[in-house]
Hints:
By secondary structure, the protein is of the alpha+beta class. The protein has 2 domains: 7-104 and 221-228, Glutaredoxin, CATH 3.40.30.10; 109-218, Glutathione S-transferase Yfyf (Class Pi), Chain A, domain 2 (Up-down Bundle), CATH 1.20.1050. It contains 9 helices and 4 strands. The chain has a 4-stranded mixed β-sheet with strand order 2-1-3-4, sandwiched between helices. Keywords: Transferase.
Amino acid sequence: MAPQTIIPTLHHLTSSQSHRILFMLEELHEAHGLDYHLHIYHRNNPTELSALRAVSPLGKSPVLTLDGPGAPSPFPQLPHHPALLAESRLILEWLHDTYGQGMYDPTNAADHRQDLFFREFAKATLAIKVLLTLAFEMTPAVAAVAGPVVAHWKKDLVPIYDLMEATLSEERPWFAGEQFGLADFNMIWGADVARARGYYDRERYPKVEGWYQRVVGRPAWKRAVEKGGAYNLVTFE
């Protein structure tokens, strides 16, 4: 990789979907020597959460800020935050486009279509069902009466996981197709929450379980867990 003049800083909230951004940063560091900074905000620390709100206009994580001479403005529609990237999918794509040297590009047209589909599916279908279930479970005001609603959302996950299981094969073991790619980075958050919280029957979906184990077995994932502070999708502590 050419000499790096712009250093990305990940503003990372513990036990959050920011973990997949840290995962990609570690992948890029391993493959291309990417340097980055990491600022950790602990979920249950009000002072640190206030500091995060000072960085992000929405007070959300992940947020990537860019430091260095000539740092670009990825989203010029946010003129008051010219060197800030927000939203997980956009951050993942920007990091890959900027530093990935094509390492996650699909190698054929069929994989390209599948990769695009599951990048969108990850948030528009999988994550929205998982997070609705999570919200009803974790919100004290409704948790006591949320049982039927949670059961409904879990039932809705069955055809989603059926599709995921049917997609994977020995020849194409990743949601990006033949090789690990952007779709897999996008899919892991919703899938990880659902798995950790028992939202589906693992034995019914052995290919999904195999995919999950391959993702979390990657050295970059393990380093991200070590560096990122707490990552507990059951208690979110």
